[in-house]
Amino acid sequence: MPTYQLLHQHQPDECRFAYAAWNGFTSPLRHQPALSSCAQGHHRICWTVEADSPEAALSLLPSYLVARCEVDPVSEVPIP
Amino acid sequence: MGRQVSRLVGRLDELAALVGVLDGLASGRSSWAQVTGEPGIGKTRLVAEFCGIAEQSGAVVLTGRGAELELDLPFGIVIDAFDDYLGSLDDDRVAGLCGRQFNELHRLFPALDVLGRPRAHAGPEDERYSTYRALRALVDRLASPGPLVLVFDDLHWADSASIEFVSFLLGHPPEAPVLMVLTWRPGEAPGLAEALSVRAHDLPGTVLGLTSLPEDAVGEMLGKSLDGPALRSLFRASGGNPFYAQALASAASRDGPGARSGVAAQDPDDGAIPGPVAAAVGHEIRSVSQAARLLAQGAAVVGEPFEPELAARCAGLSAQEMVAGLDELVARGVVRSVQSPRRFAFRHPIVRRAVYDSAGSGWRLAAHARAAAVLSERGAPIATRAHHVARSAATGDLAAAVLLIDAAAEVASRAPASGAAWLDAAYAIVPHRSETVDTRVDLLMARARVFCLLGDLQAGHDAFVEMLELVAPGDPRYVSLIAGCAGVEHGLGRFVEARGKLLAALEELPATQRAADARLCVELAVSWLYTLDFAEAAAFATRASQAAVGCDRLLEGTARALLAFVNASTETAEGNRAARTHGAEAAAILDRLDDDEVATRLDALYYLGWAERLLERYEPAATHLGRAIAVAEAGGGSQWLVPTMIEQAKVLTWTGQITRARDLAETAVEMAKVSEVGLLVLLALTAEVAVLSATGEMAMAIALCTEALGLGAPGASYHEANLRRLLALAHLEGGDPERFLAELTSGDDETVRDGAACRLLEARNRAELALGRTEVAVQLADQAHQLAAELELPASAGFAQRARARVLAQSGPEAALAASRDATALFEGSGALVEAARTQALTADILAKCGRSKEAIAECAAAGDALASYGAQGAAEHARLLLRRLRRAGAVSARDGRIVQGPNALTRREHEIAELVAQGRTNRQIARLLSLSEKTVESHLGRILAKLGVTGRSAVARAITRTFASPEGGE
Q1: How far is CA B9 from the centre of its chain?
Q2: Which residue from A34, B113, B709, B958 has the highest number of Cβ atoms inside 10 Å of its Cβ?
Q3: DSSP per position, B504-539
Q4: What ipTM goes with this model?
Q5: pLDDT of residue B568
Q6: Spatial distance between the Cα atoms of B505 and B499, rounded to a whole number of angstroms
Q7: Quick check: B320 contacting A, CB < 8 Å?
Q8: Mean pLDDT per 10-residue section of chain B, whose length is 971 residues
Q9: Does residue A9 fall inside a structural domain?
């Protein structure tokens, strides 16, 4: 199954909305840690997920995050 | 999905109880849970654990928390619960959730600003009840797709408006199932328990009172670091309170066992934080670095949840100091991240309070001022800024006073307690100098309004008195202030005082100031109405109408409307004639004014509509009252909204719009109860009783009568007399004529009828016939006829004819038939459609007595259909019972019971309409031609179709055409 990187970004004054958006939303990403730069003031959150398609990957996020998210297929590469 | 295993200590039973209440939502009914207990007992911890379980179950969980230091922020706990979530939804979803209440909700929730729409200014229409209804609609829509859990934590620290909303929601739960979880400290909100229990008594729910943990649970909570004697000592000192135990344990681990020496056991029930616990928390704060302590103090000033940057600017810290301080506070557990990574809250409200108190008073003043400045830079809502300005403004700071006044104006109608707090703060800082007179008058006017909204009329009156000391008689504002002060005095029942003020002002007025003269005379007329002195009221209304001619059309129209009402209230022929004249003049003036003009004197439409009801001109009454309601709801002055809704409910009960009448009456009752004005509650309940009597819900009508009569509202004797008559009628409609007569004769005031004189005579006629006293019934019918002839009112004449028809039916049904049909026509002509249909049922009964069974069945079926369509279910059921009886007696039973009668069976009005239908007119055109509503035309058409035995308009045309083509007429 393909792997995708979800990179969500929001404005500083939108931070509270990006976290409130998970309320009532069903997703395996809930109640799991994620890498975020919100505390550092840069307001990006990223996940690496396996999904059948970019749309399926985005369906793991609430619509508020989807509207502000890039999704890229990724794969492991050897670094010389 | 499996549920999370609890890590909670000692509260598993309570947690299971909450989960049980959550599971109960599957029944489709809302429920509630109250979690109570002393500070630190673990209410929030328990509810947080429950919320995690609820979220895992798929529920949307919204949590708002009261804050001790932000009691003045209106709807603070509500905004805390909903705002972030609303901001996270897309535009379409928000629009769907808010529906028609978007503007109302937009004014309340800052997050909705992200939709880019400018925030509309609050106006008088933003009264509390409309805000509560808008919020309830929002909750209903949020709960519709799936379970919704609303948590209001630390409700004892919620602002008044939030508590009123929670109470409202408990009493008016949304249709979709919602679980409301409320936590609070009983010792700090003694009235809250009663308020919540009264409102919630119809909903299933549970109260969980948390008590101290046992020693072993305290030990489990603290881990295995304490030996037996140490644990026992700490347990005694903490009383089993989890927060106290943790605070004392932290102090001991930080400072050594000696820190607990000399500690005495504290009584956890007195509500105060025990000394050792307070000392432990205080020591914790003093032990952090200066940057961390200042950041914490800045955060305590700013409020929770806080952004570190705002707390740092409030404390005067640099960005580097903020980062270092925050890291230390998080590491020490003083604060923690909540909801999102850049928002933090204190470990416990006790900690926040201790940090706040640890700052010096002067430092706090400066910190609040800095917070206000930063929030102003950021464009924060005025209410948020006002909170800090109120705590930092110095005497003489007029800019601060203006901000506080503006903030109060924005919230006063929805949250008057918050508005009053800011106005008090503004009043304290405005210096009493000659150059501040205008500011002080504006301030006092705002205070008067807010106090009246709060129901504190005495405080409102005091504000007016103070204004009148600042404003001289020649000032343009003087007359308005006198009128306003008199209005409050009316509310206090001090009519003599009010009149004295108005008369004194009138005497001082120069003769040239005719508009002011008219204004004062209008207020005097209203004043005399309160004490039912119609002659004095008429005299002043006449003077007002003369003074206003040529200088103020609105006042002239108001005076004419008052004259119409005063004259109609005399219930005499002469009075009715004068009332018709004045009413027509008032309508001619007011109907030409646009809504913005009329909005400033909605009482004009109110009195005109009431007069028209008394004159039995129900359709124009409904039109004028409906306009007043629409204007009031659109922002024209809501003090008249409830009285007008009450009057409109009565009118619509007559015209067959009983469902709408019920909605108005119920809304009026709730709004009146929010206003806490006893007389208004009584009037609203009276209207609801009238509606319930029309729907046939007699038991509920009687119960509400009892409730209303128990209110003991001042100045209510007139209205209580009306209520007793409604109670009596409810007994009659419920089949108890003896009880009706007994209730009617006990304490009945013959001089006051509210337009019900002939109706009561007819009701008595009915009761006497039911008891077999025909001679008495005959006398009553004659009295009704005599009175109706004097009054020259159509519906009254209809009641008189119906009484005669009942009497004649005993001996001469053929003569009774003509009287009954005549009564129907009279009721229809006045627009009293419900009584017209009830009379049709009587006609059916008489037809059966005449042996005309087929016609009887058709008439009865048509009456039943009409009554059902009007919402008069009780009368409709009587008609259905009669229909069954008639059929059993051997009437021809077609499949649907309808028998063709032919055009001869049509009433005069039905003929008119049938002819217009035959001419090809639409219902709208017919309504316009005959000055009826479309709904009325549709009702008539239904009966026409039934009587003619046809199903379409073209068939009506053919039936009518054949009638005129045939020299004999007929079927």
Answers
A1: 43
A2: B709
A3: HHHHHS-TT-HHHHHHHHHHHHHHHHHTT-HHHHHH
A4: 0.92
A5: 93
A6: 10
A7: no
A8: 56 94 90 92 95 92 93 92 93 87 86 63 57 91 91 93 89 90 86 72 86 91 79 87 88 63 39 75 89 96 94 95 94 89 90 91 95 94 93 92 89 84 91 87 87 81 94 90 91 90 93 91 92 91 93 94 94 92 97 91 94 94 94 69 93 94 89 76 91 89 85 70 86 86 69 76 93 92 93 94 93 88 94 95 91 91 94 91 82 48 68 87 86 81 82 81 42 30
A9: yes
Residue A51 lies in a domain: yes
Q: Which residues of chain A have pLDDT under 50?
A: none
Q: Which amino acid is at B742?
A: A
C-alpha B706/C-alpha A74 separation (Å) is 75
Q: What is the pLDDT of residue B716?
A: 67
Gap between the Cα atoms of B892 and B854, Å rounded = 6
Beginning with the edge strand found earlier in the chain, give each strand of the sheet holding A35-36 in spatial order.
Answer: A35-36, A44-50, A3-9, A69-74
Query: Which chain B residues are closer than 8 Å to A68 by Cβ?
Result: none
* Residues B388, B411: Cα–Cα separation, whole Å: 16
Q: Does B90 touch chain A (CB under 8 A)?
A: yes
DSSP assignment of A9-59: E--GGGHHHHHHTTTT---TTTTS--EE-TTTT--EEEEEEE-SSHHHHHT
**Among A26, A39, A64, beta carbon nearest to B88:** A64
CB contact under 8 A, A23 and B88: yes
The verdict on residue A8 lying in a domain is yes
Contact indicator for B750, B720 with CB cutoff of 8 Å: no
Among the partner-chain residues B59, B87, B146, the one whose CB lies closest to the CB of A17 is: B87
The predicted structure's pLDDT at residue B789:
92
- Write the burial class of residue B581 (CB in 10 Å: 0-12 exposed, 13-18 middle, 19+ buried): middle
| Structure-token pair, residue B261 | 């020496």
Which residue segment(s) compose the domain that A32 sits in?
Answer: 3-74
Q: What is the pLDDT of residue B452?
A: 79
Which residue, chain included where needed, has tokens 């017919």?
Answer: B926
- State residue A59's pLDDT score: 96
Distance, first Cα to last Cα, chain B: 73
* pLDDT for residue B910: 82
- CA of A16 vs chain B CAs: smallest distance (Å): 6
B431 touches chain A (CB under 8 A): no
Q: Report the alpha-carbon distance of residue B157 to residue B360 in Å, rounded.
A: 23
Asked if B2 reaches chain A (Cβ–Cβ under 8 Å), the answer is no
Give how many domains chain A has, as a whole number: 1
Residue B87: list chain A partners with CB under 8 A: 14, 16-17, 20
Identify the DSSP state of B746. S
- State the Rg of chain B over Cα: 34
**Residues in CB range of B948: below 8 A, 6 or more apart:** B900, B901, B902, B903, B906, B914, B955, B956, B959
For residues B414 and B128, the answer to whether their CB atoms sit within 8 Å is yes
Long-range CB pairs of B251-258 (<8 Å, 24+ gap) are: B251/B276, B251/B279, B251/B280, B251/B283, B251/B284, B253/B225, B254/B283, B254/B284, B254/B287, B255/B283, B257/B230
Strands B148-153 and B178-184 turn out to be parallel
Asked if residue A22 belongs to a domain, the reply is yes
CB of B919 within 8 Å of any CB in chain A? no
Contacts of A39 in chain B (CB under 8 A): 337, 341-342
User: B677 - beta bridge partners?
Assistant: none
Does residue A32 belong to the interface with chain B, where contact is any CB pair within 8 Å?
A: no
Q: Which amino acid is at B755?
A: G
Q: How far apart are CA A75 and CA B259, in angstroms?
A: 58
In terms of CA atoms, which chain A residue is nearest residue B62?
A23
Dihedral sign for Cα B852, B853, B859, B863, please: positive
Contacts of B380 in chain A (CB under 8 A): none
Structure tokens at B683: 């009037």
